[in-house]
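Budget justification aside, the reviewers requested a transparent look at the raw inputs and outputs of the sequence design task funded under Objective 1. We therefore reproduce one unedited record. The lines immediately below are the structure tokens for a 379-residue chain.
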């Protein structure tokens, strides 16, 4: 009888539960979370085990992971780096979608020492954007890469016209972290939310694009002369966020209010959570556009994915979760064997792995539409 491999999914939120449900048909899956009610709800209709666990406790997390063949880290970003470190210390292969702010390559030596494959940032963008770029970087002499991505509600409600398909605190952190991009071969740093522009994305409509720090590992792994990443929102959203920033609502320094000390950022995060939380029955969509150019041609990938009504799955949980699940299968089936910290572009470098992920997503009706046009070079 075939030995069924065991997976533990750390974090059973919107995306974590989608990954657990997707993989439990073929593997022995355990979902771990601090919220027992959330775990029981996922277990009701799915053949998986559940365990209540405080995943902020590194030592307990290491112990928890020891009996599994693969770990999937779907914890919030502020917990991500330490959780990944704990999993690597436990000597377990891992696919991570926490999108933490720290540099994952700080854990590379530890991962290699412990013979661990640690795939990080394995979502949409970063994630599929990296996989696609990694593949074409082997085929072309790329001189320009542009990425535009957003997860948005199908029925936006003022004043923010936004819902966070993942942790709202991670969104705020994204809005505050300086944005890095590459211009003429040099890394340039700009304020996040800067250089906004309105772009027409067809079925998704006209959206506002602005700089965020989304290139991440590509700044180290790619030698491409020009690279930029912009996040997409409905027009007007960023104007409100910038007003809040300018007024000090995102300041981290604590102030005293009625004898209590609290930072404006903590208070704002708490308030925005109720405004931004994507409810389970709320419909969303994901939009992504990649533009990759060399001296002769420009290729483009477009994604427009909507909420899966039949299975009541948000678009962001599908597009992120299924990408992560595909990577997990590559590791479990020994198709992707590289050790150390592995950003998704390393998957894309291997043609067989690239094809597997693209076909896997296509079977889930997640379609990255390819187009190509020649570069018009005039003397």
């Amino acid at each position: 009888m075939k030995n069924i491999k065991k997976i533990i999914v750390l974090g059973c939120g919107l995306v974590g539960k989608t990954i657990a449900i997707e993989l439990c048909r073929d593997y022995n899956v355990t979902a771990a979370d601090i919220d027992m009610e959330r775990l029981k709800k996922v277990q009701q209709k799915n053949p998986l085990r559940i365990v209540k666990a405080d995943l902020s406790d590194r030592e307990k997390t290491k112990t928890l992971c020891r009996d599994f063949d693969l770990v999937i880290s779907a914890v919030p970003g502020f917990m991500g780096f330490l959780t990944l470190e704990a999993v690597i210390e436990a000597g377990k292969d891992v696919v991570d979608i926490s999108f933490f702010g720290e540099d994952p390559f700080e854990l590379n030596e530890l991962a290699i020492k412990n013979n661990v494959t640690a795939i990080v940032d394995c979502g949409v963008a970063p994630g599929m954007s990296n996989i696609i770029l990694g593949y074409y970087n082997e085929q072309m002499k790329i001189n320009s890469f542009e990425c535009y991505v957003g997860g948005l509600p199908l029925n936006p409600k003022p004043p923010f016209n936004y819902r966070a398909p993942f942790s709202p605190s991670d969104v705020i952190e994204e809005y505050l972290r300086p944005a890095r991009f590459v211009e003429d071969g040099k890394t340039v740093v700009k304020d996040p939310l800067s250089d906004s522009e309105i772009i027409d994305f067809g079925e998704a409509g006209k959206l506002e694009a602005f700089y965020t720090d989304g290139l991440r590992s590509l700044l180290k792994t790619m030698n491409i002369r020009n690279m930029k990443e912009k996040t997409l929102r409905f027009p007007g959203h960023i104007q409100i966020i910038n007003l809040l920033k300018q007024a000090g609502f995102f300041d981290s320094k604590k102030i005293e209010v009625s004898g209590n000390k609290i930072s404006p950022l903590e208070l704002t995060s708490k308030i925005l959570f109720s405004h931004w939380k994507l409810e389970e029955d709320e419909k969303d969509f994901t939009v992504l556009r990649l533009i990759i150019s060399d001296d002769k041609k420009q290729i483009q990938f477009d994604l427009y994915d909507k909420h899966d009504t039949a299975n009541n799955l948000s678009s962001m949980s599908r597009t992120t979760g299924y990408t992560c699940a595909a990577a997990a299968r590559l590791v479990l089936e020994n198709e992707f064997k590289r050790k150390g910290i592995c950003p998704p572009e390393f998957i894309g470098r291997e043609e067989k792995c690239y094809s597997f992920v693209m076909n896997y997503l296509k079977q889930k009706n997640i379609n990255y539409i390819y187009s190509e046009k020649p570069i018009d070079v005039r003397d």
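The CA atoms of residues 11 and 74 lie 5 Å apart. Residues 6-124+316-365 form a domain with the Rossmann fold fold (CATH 3.40.50.720). Computational costs for records of this kind are itemized in the attached budget.
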